[in-house]
TrEMBL record:
GO MF annotation: an example: ATP binding
EC number: 2.7.11.1
PANTHER family the record matches: SERINE/THREONINE-PROTEIN KINASE BSK5, SERINE_THREONINE-PROTEIN KINASE BSK-RELATED
Pfam family, one: PK_Tyr_Ser-Thr
Subunit: Interacts with BRI1.
Example of a GO cellular component annotation carried by this entry: plasma membrane
Reaction(s) catalysed (UniProt annotation): L-seryl-[protein] + ATP = O-phospho-L-seryl-[protein] + ADP + H(+); L-threonyl-[protein] + ATP = O-phospho-L-threonyl-[protein] + ADP + H(+)
Reported function: Serine/threonine kinase that acts as positive regulator of brassinosteroid (BR) signaling downstream of the receptor kinase BRI1.
Keyword Zinc-finger: no
Lineage, highest ranks first: Eukaryota, Viridiplantae, Streptophyta, Embryophyta, Tracheophyta
Name recorded for this polypeptide: Serine/threonine-protein kinase BSK
Organism field: Arabidopsis arenosa
Amino acid sequence: MGCGCFSMPLENQHDELKNDGFSDWPFIEFFLSDLTKATKNFSANEIISENREESSNVVYKGLLSEILDFVAIKRFKNSEWSDHEEFAEDAKAVGELKHKRLVNLIGYCCDEDERLLVAEFMPNDNLATRLFNQSINKFLAFSVLNPNLLAFTEKNQTMEWSMRLRVGYCIAEALEYCNSAGFASYNNLSAYSVLFDKDGDPCLSSFGLIKAINYDRSQRTRGIVNPKSVTYRFGTILVNLLTGKQVPPSHAPEMINGKCVTELMDPNLKGKFSAEEAFVVYKLASQCLQCENRKSLITKELVATLKALQTKTQVSRLLL
């Protein structure tokens, strides 16, 4: 039996909801039927995630109503949350987090064996796709939503250095906020977790936060400590930004140890970067990759260092 409560008379709320986004929405418990319809019965054509680290859990693009924006719907294996009340409690806790660099979690659904999360839809893909030049045909599909994407794909497939600095800063800022709100863990933080909004600005997916809650709970009951901290994973993202390469977290230290910055830099940048700024990012990456204690955190000092780099370079957004 379903436990959703989304099916409200939307036609009476047209003026209030149209084009307002989801920043002021109350957290919603959805009917499974609403999400099934929104994703065209969970059609493979609506799948928008390609995270190889989480192949068992799929993210779909969904449209709840013609008067509302698209949403992202993550469908979990039910075995991860056998208790639907526990799942609902975790989802609501993450739904309370609000930050300009964190994707809003707007609701959930638990219906018998189904466990789903609903978040804002980020139309400009993820860092893995952008930085590693994956799935170019996917860009063309999304160009229907934003014609600027087509121009980006045809003219410049390499992410500029200024944008890479912005990604590092914005994600560090989001993680620091989450930590200050009591969410020190993030499950499988990676380039796939960094999404780009309609303006081309980087945001952190909120899906990894709820999985982290569940992961921490299960590890505590078994007395196991997670060897890869958020800080370590963030260091891997910094390595991604420097090299332009998809580096497994376990190989990130050997990727940079004993190498100078110029050896590491993405050749696709063709020298269009500041060596001084690159060295700062390299140093931060090295420090982060030394942190394997699960309690190590993204600190205010790290955020401040990356913020300072924003003042030295004129940051151009992804699509402008």
